[in-house]
Amino acid sequence: MIKLFKRIIAGLRGDKAIWALVTLLGLFSFMPVFSASSNLSLVVKNGTVYSHFFKHFMHISIGIGIVYIVSKIKYERLKYIIYLLVPAVIGLLVFALLNETVIAGANASRWVRLPFVNLTFQPSALAIVVLNMYIAHYMSKNISSNIPFNFKKSLLWLWGPIGVCTILILPANLSTAALLLFTNVLLIYLGGYPFRYLLRIGLMGFSALALLYVLGQVYPNKYTSRMATWESRIDRFLADEDDKDVDNYQTDNAKIAIATGGVTGLGPGKSVQRNFLPQSSSDFIFAIIVEEFGMLGALGLIFTYLSLFVRFFINATKITEPFGKLLIYGLGFPIVFQAFVNMGVAVQLFPTTGQSLPLISSGGTSIWITCAAIGVILSVTAEVKKSKVSNPNSNEKDKKTKISDQQFEPTDAQVTEAIKVVQQN
């Protein structure tokens, strides 16, 4: 059994610490998802607790398989498919927007149903991964060529795809559009894009958003109806707790769950608020985790995500190739940012967003997309490790050189005798 375990570990490609942290999050997710899914089975009358647990088990298992398979692919090969993935994602976003899914009178066209397999997924989640890969490649080409950025060209080839995807995501999902823009701009800044150009883009984006808001107020339609949801969430976030006109049902139950948890929690599977808190197995699963595992469990989860962030940063600093470095930044940082946004919503640091907790919340395709991004990161880290292994004796050679220099260091008598020989000649 131990030999088999060692073989499995040896066959993993990439940073073993990242592998351990991802596996730890996946294994831990079974407990809160199993507990919180009782809300779906008993309250919503959707399946059973065991069916939801088995579904989540399959999602995590397939996700780990995706990490393994993608990590075996050399990340340089992604350069050849990036330009095919961008138009494909844009096409999926257009299809989702035209799908005309309406919830409570508002546009909620986030989902695309895959034919034959009866699975749904959000193209916006895929857009974050694909766009950051595209930006990493675009920026790395400019870095390698040592050619200064041309603002007019970057408007078309860099900001064009970002603007199109943001516009297509924004009507149905403001939080994902904001996360997309934030990670895109951060990656572009880390890639060396001039700050003065970023200021221009920021001014243009703010003007476009203001114009969209005015048009939505003057000419309301199904594509701008989601603005009412944005406004209500912001109003609930800014309103006083004693304001009876504001519906804070979700956040109130989340705060009750967190307060009930205390330091050590009620224990696994003993949550009470899971029966009252909507989306307790996805958007608000952090509140259930705190209720059952307490402040200690919450700090442990936060530490795990921070450790993942640190491993991403350390590996990015080790690699010298621009494309690999920017891939780690662009695919790793959004995972950690999304985790802290989800936790911030549960403790009411942010308005309700609908962002899931990566590798913890239930949901198949979101887990798989996150796992694919981690697989790419592991592929990059494997190249860093390979470069070290390819020259393992470099430090030994340096040591031998220093020792040899010390062994052949001449004495004062030898120097004096050498000077006499030179003078005689």
Task: Set out the fold topology.
Layout: H1 2-11, H2 16-36, H3 38-43, H4 49-71, H5 82-97, E1 102-103, E2 106-107, E3 112-114, E4 119-121, H6 123-145, H7 151-157, H8 159-169, H9 174-190, H10 195-218, H11 226-238, H12 249-261, H13 285-318, H14 322-346, H15 364-389, H16 394-407, H17 412-424
Antiparallel strand pairs: 1-2, 3-4
Note the total helix count. 17
Mean pLDDT: 82
- Element-by-element helix/strand order: HHHHHEEEEHHHHHHHHHHHH
First-residue to last-residue Cα separation: 76 Å
Beta fraction of the residues? under 5%
Low-confidence stretches: 102-107, 397-407
* Percent in helix: 55-70%
Rounded radius of gyration (Å): 27 Å
The best one-word shape is globular
Chain oligomer state: single chain
> How would a textbook summarize the main sheet?
2 strands, antiparallel
Give the strand tally: 4
User: Largest sheet, order of strands side by side?
Assistant: 1-2
The structural class is mainly alpha
Structure characteristics:
mainly alpha, two-stranded antiparallel sheet, 17 helices, globular
Q: How would you briefly describe this protein structure?
A:
The chain is mostly helical and 425 residues long. It has helices at 2-11, 16-36, 38-43, 49-71, 82-97, 123-145, 151-157, 159-169, 174-190, 195-218, 226-238, 249-261, 285-318, 322-346, 364-389, 394-407, 412-424, and strands spanning 102-103, 106-107, 112-114, 119-121.
Describe this structure in words.
The protein is mainly alpha-helical and 425 residues long. It has 17 helices and 4 strands. The strands form 2 sheets. A two-stranded antiparallel ribbon has the order 1-2. A two-stranded antiparallel sheet has the order 3-4. A hairpin with a 2-residue loop joins strand 1 and strand 2. Helix 6 runs antiparallel to helix 14 (322-346) and helix 8 packs antiparallel against helix 9.
